[in-house]
Each structure stands twice: as C-alpha cells, then as structure tokens.
Specification:
This protein has 9 helices and 6 strands, in the order αααβαββαβαααββα. The chain has helices spanning about 1-5, 5-30, 35, 50-60, 90-100, 120-145, 155-185, 190-220, 250-265, and strands at about 40-45, 70, 80-85, 110-115, 225-230, 235-245. A hairpin with a 7-residue loop joins strand 2 and strand 3. Helix 6 (about 120-145) runs antiparallel to helix 7 (about 155-185) and helix 6 packs parallel to helix 8 (about 190-220). This is Protein translocase subunit SecF. Pfam families: Sec_GG, SecD_SecF_C.
Length: about 270
C-alpha cells in the first residue's frame, strides 16, 4: 500500500520529471539526422587519423557548401574516424569527396555513405509525427472500449486519458535524454529513434493495461450490485445497475498496483 501512502510523492516526482523534460526539449531541441533533414553522411575510418582541421581543409577545397566534420567511433576498436555531413551530393561530388578523405591518413576506409533528399526527409518527419498521433488515438479508443463495462466511479474514457498521459510521460523522458545527447555528444534523431519511441509506446500501453485490468478485477471483487428501476420522460420504465464499493477506490487501485509491481519491474529489464 506504499503506492497509496506516498502517492503524492510519486506524483510530484513524475511531475518534476515531465516539466524538466519539457523544458529540455523546448530549450535545447532535437538534433535531426539526415533521415529528416536531407543531405549526405559519410563515415570514414583510419588506422592513424589525421587532425580534424586537416580533414576540414581538404573538404573545403571541393566547394561543396556547408559541411560539418566530427569524430566518430569506428567499427573497429583500434581505428578512429570522422562523420562528414554535407548537402545532398551527386555521384560525381561523392566520388570527389571519397577521393579527398581517403587520400589523407593511414588505412583509410569509407565505412558507410547515406544520402537522403530534403523532400524525402520532410516526408519522413511528417509520417513519423502522424504515426505517433495515430497510435495515440487508437490507444484511447481501444482502452475506452475495453474498459467500457467497468462502471463507476471512473469513466472508461478516463482510463483512456490516463493511458495517453502515461504515454506522454514515457515518450517525453527518452526524448529529453536524446536532446541532451544531441547537445553534448552530437547524437542525432533518425528513423531508428522513432522506431524506439514506438516500441516504448507498445511496452507502456501493455504495462498500463495490465494494471488497469487488475483494477477492473479488484473493482468487481469489491463491490455490491443492485438493480433499480427508473422512469424516464414519457413514462418509460428502465432498469439501471448501481454499484457500491466495499473498499475505498484508492485502496482498490493501490492493491492493483502492488499486485502488478513485480511483473512491471521484470518486464522493464
């Protein structure tokens, strides 16, 4: 029952985390990768990497426009390398860039080269946003439908709203972490990160519904029912089921959380 006794503490902690995450995302922002912004990304590795200034100076001679060079962890531990970001390159420009970066340093090798047009990047960003919005709407409708028979004291739509609030929390935290990683480590948001968020959505919904299902079972086990007749306008008589809880609703929810806690922790790792 500690979840009920200290519920205000848990709510304050969750609120602080959410507000802090919102502030981080709003002020720092996200560093989008070429999947969303468009452009070309080349990773080159060296046995003995040249200085970053040397690489930048060589690329500057190609007059490709704006570009950036940053250190990267090469695929092999004994190598070092750079990530080179440019605008979307033609085949000829790509060949020139490869020739330049491979001509400096020892044991040079192009690990990967990705190129995404700006139109495709914008389209991917829009689709990613719509995917998350669509999943959220479907979740609300599903939860509201699945828990329609729970009855008082909480409407099934409240269950759906709480699920989305939990989803917002669970998505916001890794997004804020990604924002900080982008600021301090240069981490970029790409399609894989969106897939990770969708995976978080799935696990979050699963965990929340498990707890809600236990709440529903506890409600049914700790209430009495009686059918009463009521008269509607026009003299139409109808029956309505009235529920009376034998335990406080907070206690029932607390027991459901306690029953599901071990499973929730085990499925989180």
């Amino acid at each position: 029952m500690f979840s009920i006794i200290y519920k205000n503490v848990f709510l304050i902690i969750a609120a602080v985390i959410m507000v802090g995450s919102i502030v981080i995302v709003a002020t720092v922002g996200l560093k989008y990768g070429i999947d969303f912004t468009g452009g070309s990304l080349m990773e080159v590795s060296y046995n003995s990497a040249p200085a970053k200034d040397v690489v930048s100076a060589k690329i500057e001679t190609l007059q490709l426009g704006g570009f950036s060079v940053r250190e990267s962890g090469a695929s092999e531990s004994d190598k070092s390398g750079y990530l080179i970001r440019t605008r979307d390159l033609s085949d000829n420009e790509r060949s020139q860039l490869e020739g330049v970066v491979l001509s400096i340093g020892e044991g040079s090798h192009v690990e990967r080269f990705n190129s995404v047009g700006p139109v495709i990047g914008t389209e991917l960003k829009d689709k990613a946003i719509w995917a998350i919005v669509a999943v959220s709407i479907i979740i609300i409708l599903y939860v509201a439908y699945a828990f329609a028979g729970v009855g008082k004291p909480v409407s099934s739509w409240v269950y759906g709203g709480i699920t989305i609030l939990v989803l917002f929390h669970d998505i916001l935290v890794p997004t804020a972490m990604m924002s900080l990683l982008g600021l301090f480590r240069g981490a970029e948001v790409d399609v894989l990160f969106v897939m990770a968020l969708l995976a978080v959505l799935g696990y979050s919904v699963n965990d929340t519904i498990v707890i809600f299902d236990r709440v529903r079972e506890n409600l049914k086990a700790n209430r009495t029912e009686r059918t009463i007749k009521k008269t509607a306008a026009g003299g139409v008589v109808y029956e309505e089921t009235e529920y009376t809880l034998t335990k406080p609703f907070a206690v029932i929810v607390g027991n459901a959380v306690a029953d599901s806690l071990a499973r929730s922790i085990n499925t989180s790792f």
